[in-house]
Amino acid sequence: MNTSSGTAGSRAPRAPRRARGGYAFIAGYVVLLAAFGIVPTVYAIYFAFTNADGAFTGLGNFTAAAADFRFLPAVGHVALYLLFWLVSLVVLVVVLALVLHRLTSQGLSRGLRFLFYIPGALAGAASVMVWLFMLDPTVSPVSFLLRALGFPTFGSVIAPGHLPVLFTLIAFWTGAGGWIVVMYGALNNISTDILEAARIDGAGPWRTALHIQIPLLRKWIVYMVILAFAGGAQLFVEPQLLSQASVGVAGRDYSLNQLSYDLAFQMNNVNGAAAVSVELLIVGLVVATFFVARSGFFDAE
Known about the structure:
301 residues, mainly alpha, 15 helices
């Protein structure tokens, strides 16, 4: 009895040390979150509800931003892009992850995972520059394909009606590979006993995917949709660079983030820009809350 008590007593102090180690690991993240996340957010909220003199204006900045003739078109552009982006992301990422998982036994998985992940190593601006090169029929290595599709010039490729699809292609090429790898890892965590039981019951690959694998990926898919929505709603780099490269085809105010940038740095209306930013934050939080609540994201398995 004494020996066991002594042993337990000697082990007791380890818990506080482990707790201190955990705090040390997250301390850097907390500092960066406060400096580049919480403080700027509070600062933006302050500007959104005040005027240039610091006086409280209520919803004045929000109504003024919404009344801007560029606001509703920008909302429509972002909404259409999000529709294309999220649908293509969910469908293609899940399908490609399932295919990748099926190829594991064939020795192709490791190489394909590397290929999927490579585009994500490029920064947003660099990936857009690559696509500007690819979409110009005069220099593109796939110019024959562009001309066959009826796009003989760069201007015809980046016509305003094509922009949501083009931005979706750029975003998918840059960001989908990392999510495919994440979904692949989640598929590997599904118990082989469950998959074997399904096979014994006569379920083929598609029935297994539809009734077992995809439902078990639900929380990962929700997590992906939340982050993809938040990133897509802040569309900025793609239309901004395309606008400069094409002499204004996309426009400086194609997206809400561009409109916010233009209000702040071209019109010196920091308060209006902050209002647009806070609106994006609110929409993102509402969408995230909806998906989390409906999916049971934090429910214990």
